[in-house]
Request: fold
Amino acid sequence: MPKTNFEIKNIRKDFPILSRKIRGKQLIYFDSAATSQKPKQVIEAMEDYYKNHNANIHRSIHTLGEEATEAYEKAHEKVADFINAGSYQNIVFTKNTTESLNLLAYSLTADLKKGDEIVISQMEHHSNLVPWQQLAKQRGLKLEFIKIDEEGKLDEESINESITKKTKIVSIMHVSNVLGTINDIKKIGNIAHENNALMVVDGAQSIPHMPVDVKKIDADFYAFSGHKMLGPTGIGVLYGKRELLENMQPFLYGGEMIREVKFEDTKFNDLPWKFEAGTMNIAEAVGLDAAIDYLKKIGMENIQKKDKELTNYTFEKLKEIKDVKIYGPKERGAVVSFNVDEIHAHDVSQILDSEGIAIRAGHHCCMPLMGVLKAHAAARASFYFYNTKDEIDKFANALGKVKKVFRV
Ligand code: C6P
Reply:
């Protein structure tokens, strides 16, 4: 394991919000899959940007303009290095994972013809389902779904049956935000490539929690959000292989994505700026840069190990409580979704909130998956390296209170 000064007390001090009280109780934040909390290093980097360097990028020849441009471009390099993308030109900044996937559903699909197939899975988030579904409807394409098995993993047989020579795009989540399932996207990508299809990965729940090397995975595209990895909201990433991005039509047209504009026609800018129209999320890029520095300081292997410990501990604790049903396999990412007997997940969440514990409840933007699981909703505890086993003990005790209130 790499050396680190991974001292939980010191880490928690970096996250101002973690010392907050909720209804007189110490906050226990178990909703990092929805959005992570932010360390002061990220908050301060953005504050410094606005206080000392704020200007528009790629336009102004003055000092502030140059400083802002340099910071924004450096953030692309930082992200490229973080996921081993090779070059900043393979990194497009967007608003979030959702926008990254929508960009693909608009721009990647020029050559698709009626009857072509797109393969996703039953566990996909709406962000990786609705854009492809709507595209399929508009263009007469077929959307195929890889099924999940009893355990909540992608069914091997269904993977092999779904991806065929008719498949043009396979788009799968790396880690499920409901089941926690860690999908073997390299293997699925190989099958996609053997069939001459492109492999798109929704990395929203993987990037914050494990080392990701897009070259090793051989993903054609990899999408994720800054706000789930200690960064600010309003910035997302789309990694793409150079030759694919070069051949794609831009998704948004306007200022700065151009090289030359005439009344009759336009030449587009180089990568990645061709996909970054208008004034971009500059301060957010600075925040994301600082977030990556923070993650690297701790080390992604250490984060993965800590998240796993917390998740396994929760899994065992919840299994001790009668009437708690957990969804998904034991080997999982940093989420544990569950229901307590017939009690609605919203009620569970509300009672936990009165104990200062923030979890998420609902369909988690995976309505079709909830149908497959035969659950209207689920409660979900999700973790990050700043959480502790002591917090999990308190959470398990509070679930006892939930059962008492509802006399289960
Ligand atoms: N899931 C959750 O609580 P955005 O909102 O664009 O940053 O991320 C969308 C998204 C895409 N894919 C997966 C696997 C996700 O988990 C998410 C976001 C949050 O589970 C909010 S719904």
In short: The first strand starts at residue 21 and ends at 22. The mean pLDDT is 96.
